[in-house]
Amino acid sequence: MKTYDILIVGGGPIGLACGIEAEKAGLSYLILEKGALVNSLYNYPLNMTFFSTSDRLEIGDVPFMSINSKPTRIEALEYYRRVASKWNLPIKLFEEVRHITADGDLYTVTSNKESYLAKHVILATGFYDIPNRMHVPGEDLPKVTHYYKDPNFYAFQKVLVVGANNSAVDAAMETWRKGADVTMVIRGNEIGKRVKYWVKPDIENRIKEGSIKAYFDSSVAKISEKHVSINTPEGLVEIENDWVIAMTGYQPNLPFLKSLGIELSKDEIMKPRYDEESMETNLPNVYLAGVVCGGMNTHSLFIENSRVHAQQIVQSILEK
Predict the structure, then answer these.
(1) Of the four listed, 24, 34, 81, 247, which is most buried by Cβ atoms within 10 Å?
(2) Alpha helices, DSSP H only, in the chain?
(3) pLDDT tens digits, 11-25
(4) What is the distance between the alpha carbons of residues 243 and 143, in angstroms, rounded to a whole number?
(5) Do 107 and 137 have their domain in common?
(6) In what order do the strands lie in the sheet containing 219-223?
(7) What's the pLDDT at 227?
(8) Is residue 55 domain-shared with residue 144, that is, in the same domain?
């Protein structure tokens, strides 16, 4: 069995960046991705626009040209596909890593298809795979989704959107524009402060004029086939409903990290333990890169401020 210098788990932008740095350094490496190329971006809403400008999303010295200053999902997918092609990155798609075990000075990385040996492992697994659940009756009904894709699906339907940040606001605005009867359930007393500045006034005005109904300081109590019950400051409210789009956020696969032996902080953030300079965890020769480094604080790291992790990690490996 071939032994790789580096095995990279995750084929998102940061995983690709790690592969590029390994390529530059002349190290042997392989990237394993459990879904499609840049799978998290693929699962973003069809009409999503990034907050970052295109130059902030660049990796591998490949220019990212977009029609507007802030690129769209489809432009990002095309860009990262071109990056992977230009660098001829060895990446195996739809191959999910199940186990990583120490084997002397090496690690055995076992996927759903094969096993590999590596001297170093980089975990760049992102955070988009595990939704934050509401833990209410009816959450597992087919009418409920934690992922929003295309507004046309919801045309002329009664839609409940849970959440107040970018994903929730995009879902509410886009489905409303397709003719949906939209109601929002918001845990706080206002639209989220992180909502894109060019969108925030629009959603606030739609709520103010009554085009989109919103329950603030509220939460979902129960979901049934034809209704949703909402806890509000005025008491329990029941509304007719066809679909629930629960944009309650996502979390990294921290149980997987813990199962490997990576230590997590004891607070609610559960931040993995790693060295800020080398990105090496408490496990020798196992590194973290990208959003996963923030634990439950998933809004602290983005593509633009974690691209540097790839350089830090490869530099650390070369120095050993």
Answers:
(1) 247
(2) 13-25, 39-42, 73-86, 166-177, 200-209, 254-260, 303-306, 308-319
(3) 999 999 999 999 999
(4) 5
(5) no
(6) 219-223, 227-232, 235-240
(7) 98
(8) no
